[in-house]
Amino acid sequence: MPVLTYGVFQREDFTCPKCGWTGKGIELQAIELYESMVIDMGCPKCLEYMGCMMAPTTEEYEKFRGEFGD
Ligand SMILES: [Zn+2]
Question: Is the pTM of this model over 0.70?
Answer without folding.
Answer: yes
